[in-house]
Fold this protein.
Amino acid sequence: MDLRDLRYFETIAELQHLGRASTRLHRSQPALTSSIRRLETACGAALFEKAGRGIKLTEAGHVLLKWAQRMRFDVEDAKRELSSIGAGLTGHVRLGVVPTAAQFLLPAVARQLLKEAPDVTLHTVVGLIAMLKPQLHAGELDLMVATESAPDAGYVSQVLSEDMIVVAASERHEVFRKAKSLKDLVAYRWALQPPGLPTRDWLDHTFDRKGLPRPHVQVETTSLISLPALIVQTGLLSFISRHHLQGPSRIPGLKEVPITGATMRRRLVVTYRANSFLSPAAKRLIELFLRSAPAD
């Protein structure tokens, strides 16, 4: 099989449309069709079938996609490892990081890495794990610092620290005079992430288990970084990392609402592909994350 045919195949499988793949790859549709025919001849099976106005992978296509991605990773790893020989602590590291880690862990780690290796370049993608994990699986990221999730075969995760998610409000909020239990929080309005995200779902289900109405959400946002400042300026409650409330990075005017049973414990981990090449700079970045993660 030709590696170029496999790369074309990956793009067609991703877009599920020959026309869009042709535009992205700057190749004609007949050329891409010929590429797929060569692969199908080599595999002895059809790789795509029609699906509406597009196409989708057959069972054989799914199998080939898994191996095509693995082969691409191996080729890219070989090139990077060969180029790193004798280069020392240099190169380019692609890091995915969730907002909490980007705010509280990354700055000190990046500062130390660049102090030790001024020629290293660091490309960071900040986002939620649902966005970062597909990029890690596609080989677009070398490693990811995110909240712990179900383990994936072929990937290694190392625990960095625990992160506690707590109810918080402006320190002037009346909730501190009146609220003693989860039931007392029902009367207030909230600023929260949308449903489907882990912290929001955990909080909703906590109210469900107590037979209480779910939080009345007045502001819904995917921007975790904006939440602390938002609730300091409003009369809203929120559910945020305790990192915002303590230490040198604490947000002035923000205070935890001490409610039993309303604390979510999660772990931050660094994840990367097992048995893959990691440049010396990427390995050093992992070491720095492990060493610099704060204890809870």
Observations:
- The longest strand covers residues 155-170.
- The longest helix spans residues 59-84.
- The chain has a mean pLDDT of 87.
